[in-house]
Write a structure and sequence with these properties.
Elements: H1 2-23, E1 43-46, E2 48-51, E3 54-62, H2 82-107, H3 109-112, H4 116-122, H5 125-136, H6 141-157, H7 162-182, E4 197-200, H8 205-213, E5 218-222, H9 229-237, E6 241-244, E7 257-261, E8 266-269, H10 273-278, H11 280-284, E9 299-300, E10 306-313, H12 319-324, E11 330-334, H13 337-340, H14 348-362, E12 367-370, H15 398-403, H16 405-418, E13 425-428, H17 434-453, E14 463-468, H18 471-475, H19 477-482, E15 486-490, H20 491-499, H21 517-533, E16 536-540, H22 550-556, E17 560-563, H23 568-575, H24 580-591, H25 596-602
Parallel strand pairs: 3-4, 4-5, 5-6, 10-11, 10-17, 11-12, 12-13, 13-14, 14-15, 15-16, 16-17
Antiparallel strand pairs: 1-8, 2-6, 3-7, 7-8, 9-10
Helix pairs in contact: 2-4, 2-7, 4-7, 5-6, 6-7, 8-9, 14-16, 16-17, 22-24
Length: about 600
């Protein structure tokens, strides 16, 4: 009880501080003029909270031109000779090795490999050789490092190949690290983004992982959606993230002192000491608004109706977090993240190790592996010619897998091998026809046959399900249910496609309404189809954690929910307040509504 009281007090403190911001005469919300590269200008930017938390520290800007088109600069007072250069190389390599090991321990093997690119660049004989030649011809080591790496940055940023443009960020990171390590009194542990508030117009999932691993204090994304995968990953990794639509935040001077409020969605530039001290309790407690884990091993409504709470995870490191928060299983493992944060396709063996580790860490709990879901806002830089006019309607999800059978077969083989000797559930994303479902099932059968021919142990009878995310799948739900072992309703994309609203477009964000009558009726139709076919069905996505909508979903017959681990305790508490004698008639009434306003009022 004391812990809950402390939570409430901390949330109240945040609300009081927000009022202080709004009432203050010394602060202004930035609208026109901004602190452009001058520093020392006080101001307040308002945005949307994506991942809660509070952080205070200096600014680092990751620009949006070619993933780091701005060039490196020689820091004042930095020089160095050949000895200092070799020492900086040694220290940088040692730091990257430690960083990779720490990242593997914290987040898993699939994430730690993102630092291999910087290690390869550091060991590149051509780059190192050119730096040494310049130093030996009389240049300071800092000048040599900056000139050589800026040449690489210019070349990569101008490339037509997305994979090379993505390496610009690695080059800049490496350059900053080496320049820091040229200083004789440089602290090895500090050559990263430790404590910085990083601002970027285009955060990729790999960026988020790198910045968390390098101890960034908080993130600001200029534009983008609350449901983008960078946002999902930030929440999963517990780093504060705020989306701000005003691109003038990109002009804030590097190293400016800022306070990031990831609960209210604000960025305070050059805060007064009084404001920093007002946030002191939150900053000392890592700034996060705590979400308590589930209080009970299982979840039931007030009248005793059982509802299963599952976790959505992105990385191996989140499995333990799911159990800590009270998840009964994993309802969705987004298998694309090991693909998104690398520079090439992970091998079958690498995938097998990831999937087996997840299953081993899950014991006898259910785990649902979703096959590769890329395209739309999740592109792979190492796939050539990925340029579509309407990517959300293009080659994505199961369509990509069926068009790239070797990639699909490699992933299926890894999953089947990992599932040997235990129950295995494989789910196909964005299935929109019986033909797609049947084609995917044929691929599974072929992979099983190949493994058996090779005498490789595998699961020969996995449960195969689909994610309902399109209007077509809703209309075909009865037929799809007869040929599936389970359903999962992916509400993020389903809402997007039903309402024709891009969920990552800030200009139409107010039209993305999860309680729209059409959305609720579609979910009801899928629930009924699953029940008629006697297959299980869960709902995942942001809607599944919406406490206002939960009574309607449960009242419609939903009995399984898959959500982010940190939301489980809050959702369990909300479900335990629901009484079906009230929820069922309320759901029936809402399903009769034709107006958004009327549905909102009933909620």
């Amino acid at each position: 009880m004391a812990k809950r009281k402390d939570t409430v007090e901390r949330i109240c403190t945040i609300a009081e501080l927000s009022s202080m911001f709004e009432e203050s005469h010394s602060l202004r919300e930035i609208r026109g003029e901004s602190p452009r590269k001058r520093g020392g200008t006080q101001g307040l930017y308002c945005g949307r909270s994506v991942s809660p938390g509070v952080a205070h520290g200096p600014v680092s800007i990751l620009d949006s031109h070619g993933r780091g088109g701005e060039r490196l600069e020689v820091p004042a007072g930095t020089g160095g000779d050949t000895v200092a250069f070799h020492d900086a190389l040694r220290r940088s390599e040692s730091q990257l090795v430690v960083l990779q090991r720490e990242t593997e321990e914290l987040l898993g093997h699939e994430v730690s490999m993102i630092f291999s690119a910087q290690q390869l660049l550091l060991r590149d004989e051509q780059i190192e050789g050119e730096m040494l030649r310049r130093i030996e011809s009389g240049h300071d080591a800092a000048v040599a490092i900056v000139d050589v790496l800026n040449g690489c940055i210019d070349q990569f940023a101008a490339s037509d190949t997305e994979m090379l443009r993505e390496k610009v960020h690695d080059l800049k990171d490496l350059g900053h690290r080496m320049l820091q390590n040229l200083s004789a009194d440089s602290d090895d542990a500090q050559a990263d983004y430790r404590g910085h508030i990083v601002i970027s117009a285009d955060l990729l999932p790999s960026d988020v992982v790198k910045l968390v691993a390098q101890h960034a204090g908080g993130l600001v994304m200029v534009g983008g959606g609350v449901n983008s995968h960078a946002s999902i990953l930030a929440r999963a990794l517990g780093i504060p993230l705020v989306i701000i639509e005003n691109d003038e935040v990109l002009e804030i001077a590097e190293e400016s002192d800022v306070l990031l409020d990831g609960v209210e969605g604000r960025l305070l530039v050059v805060p007064d000491t009084d404001y920093i001290e007002s946030y002191r309790a939150l900053l000392d407690a890592d700034g996060s608004r705590p979400e308590e884990p589930a209080r009970h091993a299982t979840t039931s409504t007030r009248d005793g109706t059982r509802v299963t709470l599952l976790a959505n995870i992105n990385l191996m490191g989140e499995v333990a977090l799911a159990w800590q928060n009270g998840a009964e299983g994993i309802g969705l493992y987004r298998s694309e993240f090991p693909f998104l944060i690398r520079n090439d396709f992970p091998s079958e063996e690498e995938q097998f190790l990831i999937y087996r580790s997840i299953l081993d860490a899950s014991g006898d709990r259910d785990v649902v592996f979703r096959t590769l879901d890329i395209g739309a806002d999740k592109f792979l830089p190492y796939v050539p010619a990925w340029n579509e006019a309407n990517p959300a309607l293009g080659l994505r999800s199961i369509r990509f897998s069926l068009k790239n059978r070797p990639v699909f077969a490699q992933q299926l083989r890894a999953m089947l091998r990992a599932g040997e000797g235990r129950p295995l559930k494989i789910m196909f994303p964005l299935v929109s026809s019986l033909e797609e479902l049947r084609a995917a099932k044929v691929c599974v059968a072929e992979s099983i046959g190949d493994l058996q021919d090779e005498r490789t142990a595998c699961n020969c009878a996995p449960d195969l399900g689909i994610m309902i995310e399109s209007p077509a799948a809703v209309e075909l739900a009865d037929a799809l249910a007869r040929e599936s072992d389970f359903f999962s309703i992916g509400t993020n994309d389903l809402v997007q496609y039903l309402l024709a609203v891009d969920r990552t477009n800030e200009h139409v964000a107010d039209l993305y309404i999860d309680h729209h009558p059409v959305v609720l009726r579609a979910i009801k139709k899928v629930l009924d189809a699953a029940q008629a076919a006697s297959i299980s069905v869960s709902v995942c996505g942001e809607m599944a954690a919406n406490e206002k909508v939960l009574p309607v979903l449960v009242g419609m017959g939903l009995r399984s929910i898959s959500i982010e681990p940190r939301s489980i305790g809050r959702v369990q508490a909300a479900i335990m307040r629901i009484d079906l004698t009230e929820a069922e008639p309320k759901a029936a009434k809402i399903l009769q509504s034709n107006e958004i306003a009327a549905t909102h009022a009933l909620l």
